[in-house]
Amino acid sequence: MQIRVLGCSGSIAAGSRTTSFLVGEDLLIDAGTGVGDLSLAEMVRVDHIFITHSHLDHVLSIGLLADSVTRKRAQAGRPPVRVMALQETLDALRAHIFNGIIWPDFTCLPEPAHPVLALQAIALGERVLAGRHWVEALPALHTVPALGYAVWPADQIDPKVWVYSGDTGPNPAFWARLRSLRLGAVVIETAFRNDERALAEISQHLCPSRLAAELSQLPTAAQVYITHIKPGEVEAVMAEVAAIETPHRVCALHSGQRLEVT
């Protein structure tokens, strides 16, 4: 299973793109600004988008992708791109983005009977078959309703699982579920430095000291990738992460990286 890191930054700057991961060719996990690095042909092949939560850095490119691929998907007779998230997240997208004011409503364009987007709710703990992959909704604790996701190939027996925390503060339920999975890699956010711990707590994000407590809940060593660090803060945050005593292999993600989970 190959995961392409389109974006993994907590905000934007030159070389920094917000969160989006392409699994295989047809599955996006989150749709931040990193989606813009896909070619048009690559965008057209995306059939499924799983969104962790409604914040702009994770949803910005849904409507832009829809605008780009509408004609070509219609010409090819492809079905709507399925956008999956918690019902609360879908309600936010309808109310605040696909409202005809911020952006056209691509859930009824180019025509209501054949839209380019279809919004579908997913519940915590639910598993959905998305092309050649299973996707499971994992618990996350954030300032808005949120999920993480576990992804694995549908055609393998006892496959290793790629896990993404989404934006989250401390969350025992997340680690409880991970302890029952055969982990290939874990992508977890660490948005702030330790001297910003109070801000991390208010915004329900992690800092390195809180990350240490979270990782201690995994009983066996795992490959861990850090995401959602703000532009210009990667070296500072990762220096503090490196000081954590942990059996896990921990490194920072970067845009354009390709992960192979086998």
What does this structure look like?
- With 262 residues, this protein is an alpha/beta fold.
- The chain is globular.
- Strand 3 (27-29), helix 1 and strand 4 form a beta-alpha-beta unit.
- It has one domain (2-260): Ribonuclease Z/Hydroxyacylglutathione hydrolase-like (Metallo-beta-lactamase, Chain A, 4-Layer Sandwich).
- The model has no long low-confidence stretch (mean pLDDT 97).
- The strands form two sheets. The protein has a seven-stranded mixed β-sheet.
- Helix 6 (208-215) packs across helix 7.
- Helix content is 25%, strand content 26%.
List keywords for this structure.
262 residues, alpha/beta, Metallo-beta-lactamase, Chain A, 7-stranded mixed β-sheet, 14 strands, 25% helix, 26% strand
Any chance you could write out the topology, listing elements then pairs?
Blueprint: E1 2-7, E2 20-23, E3 27-29, H1 40-44, E4 48-50, H2 56-75, E5 81-85, H3 87-96, E6 117-121, E7 127-130, E8 133-139, E9 147-153, E10 161-164, H4 172-178, E11 183-189, H5 197-203, H6 208-215, E12 223-227, H7 234-242, E13 249-252, E14 258-260
Parallel strand pairs: 3-4, 4-5, 5-6, 10-11, 11-12, 12-13
Antiparallel strand pairs: 1-2, 1-14, 2-3, 7-8, 8-9, 9-10
Q: What gyration radius follows from the Cα positions, in whole Å?
A: 18 Å
Number of domains: 1
For the largest beta-sheet, the strand count, sense and barrel status come to: 7 strands, mixed
Strand order of the largest sheet: 6-5-4-3-2-1-14
Structural class: alpha/beta
Sequence of secondary-structure elements: EEEHEHEHEEEEEHEHHEHEE
Average of pLDDT: 97
Oligomer: single chain
